[in-house]
Please model this.
Amino acid sequence: MSAYTPLGESPTVVLADIAFGADPGRAAGELPSAPDVLGRWYRAVALCGQGRYAAARVEVQKVYDHTADPVLRSLAESTEGSILRQLGWHRRAAAFDGRAAAVILGTDTATSGVRGVEISNTRQSYVPDAADALCDALTGLAADALGAGRFSMASRLLRRATATLPHGGSWRPEIRLQWVFAETAMATGDFRAACEHAAVAAQRAESAPSVRHQVKSRLLVAATAAAAGARERSDTVAAEVSVQCREYGLLPLQWACAMLRAGLGVETATQEAAECAAILARRGGMLRPLGA
Model:
């Protein structure tokens, strides 16, 4: 067991807390080694949240190499898609998200889930099931379509993703859906709906364990406020998010927040965005150039 694993807690539980809990900024060198395949996925997600994309891909490959579990294989594909999408490569991401959907569509979402895991799906941890994996894949495909300018397809995929979630399902896919609903509404000029979806995501995130999801939801509140013309609110929320991104080491969100603040006219934000992009590149994440 890692020296950084609290007494009485398994490394998988610790990795779950870093990926989906209160400690997303744990230094990469302090992440415990994963003792099982679910732990490898948690580790990949934790590294991805910090913008350590090359290291995250290594963990994703370990998931592929060590399990035939359809839920985890689907989530691994979705994680690859998420990495590419965060960097602006939406069309490339769609291939991974499509495979993620294909892997899980033959699985009984009513009974299937990650097997052989000894942590419960409580507020303190997150254990994905097949419904979560399918919603992840479809939500990812919707975001890919949105990034490619295919707004009608994005809306159709979001409706289909919504239909996959059981009533009272997991907090994570619900929040992710609201993010993409808000982004789609912004892209199509429905700024009131965008603000409403962002507010729902933020409210849901506040009752969830994940600091990263809370911060990203607040960033979306700032972005939708800016789109709706509420400049003062956007400035205030974005400034708070910028501080939180640095506090928790959420470099991809820090870059996105800096880009938003640069658009709002914050003098130092353009330089901050450039510095974040340079660090992301060194960590294996090359942002897609404009026009590429």
